[in-house]
Amino acid sequence: MRFKIKSRIWIEVDEHVFLGGGRVRLLKAIEETGSLSKAARSLKISYKKAWILIDSVNKSANEPVIVSSVGGKNGGGMLLTPYGKKLISTFDDINHGCWNYLDTQLKKLENL
Amino acid sequence: MRFKIKSRIWIEVDEHVFLGGGRVRLLKAIEETGSLSKAARSLKISYKKAWILIDSVNKSANEPVIVSSVGGKNGGGMLLTPYGKKLISTFDDINHGCWNYLDTQLKKLENL
DNA sequence: TAGCGTTATTTCCCTATAAATATAACACTA
DNA sequence: TAGTGTTATATTTATAGGGAAATAACGCTA
Predict the structure, then answer these.
(1) Over the stretch A27-46, which tens digit does the pLDDT of each residue have?
(2) Shortest CA–C1' contact from B45: which nucleotide?
(3) Which of A5, A87, A99, B45 is the most buried (most CB within 10 A)?
(4) Closest residue, chain B, to A88 (C-alpha)
């Protein structure tokens, strides 16, 4: 029997999702591209969906995660704040730790 | 900032979900009630949804998880096999361990 | 001033998921 | 034999979520 243990973790604030895998992927894409529309294209999700995700992150956080500018040289853009960068690296850290834990548990299923 | 780290784990076989929180809840309700229809009513999900969940568990497992009988004294029913009982207790064990790990990580978010 | 590429937001439509309904088969009971 | 409460399955109906498109505002550039 070939088992795999999968997991998904997310952070909630006031019973609402604040940060999860999808939001972290999006934040990383914003960090790389410098814009929400480019990030959405690179992840092949609609701009609307990307905007809703970022909007909910902003509304849940009490410290800025991204700063956006509209108009200007290249039309504007989005940038991660230092707090935002720390947030995604901490999320990744915890997530990897969770995977490592689950790997150690696999044998419990295999010799069941 | 009041953070909570939430998680969901599940077991896959051949890239398909074999066992997750919902299926485990349903199996426990079957163990308590002795029937799939009673279990579905107690969890307030439709019989159809419950049947699809159990059907996929049966198809993924290569050892029986439940045995069902149709017709008869009380119309029939469903029972967990010893393997099925071991499966849900192991799942619960791993799941609680995951929660414990995540609790230890919460401080990383709080003093960020 | 016209054009551009963004952010920001609304509206409409479609589709995929879930719920509700219906039906068959079954084996016991009265 | 009629009735009952299951399992098992198909069909129809409703609902919610996502995608596409349209629109506005913005501030730089040429």
Answers:
(1) 999 999 999 999 999 999 99
(2) C19
(3) A87
(4) B109
What is the pTM assigned to this prediction? 0.90
Q: Which residues of chain B fall below pLDDT 70?
A: 1
Which CATH number do you get for residue B43?
1.10.10.10
Question: Which residues does chain B have within 8 Å of residue A97's beta carbon, measured at their own beta carbons?
Answer: 101, 105
Q: Which of A6, A19, A107 to mutate to test the interface with B (most CBs of B within 10 A)?
A: A6
Q: Nearest Cα to B64, choosing from B45, B80, B44?
A: B80
Q: Specify the number of domains making up chain B.
A: 1
Q: Give the pLDDT score at B1.
A: 67
Q: Taking every pair of C-alpha atoms in chain A, what is the biggest distance, in angstroms?
A: 62
Residue A1 pLDDT more than 70? no
Q: How far is A13 from chain B (nearest CA, A)?
A: 5
CB A79 within 8 A of CB A66: yes
Pick B11's closest partner by Cβ from A11, A12, A109.
A109
Contacts with A12 from chain B: Cβ below 8 Å: 3-6
Q: H helices within chain A, ranges in order?
A: 21-33, 36-43, 47-60, 82-110
pLDDT of residue A76: 85
Q: A52-74, pLDDT tens digit by residue? A: 999 999 999 989 999 999 888 88
Question: A99 lies in which domain range?
Answer: 11-110
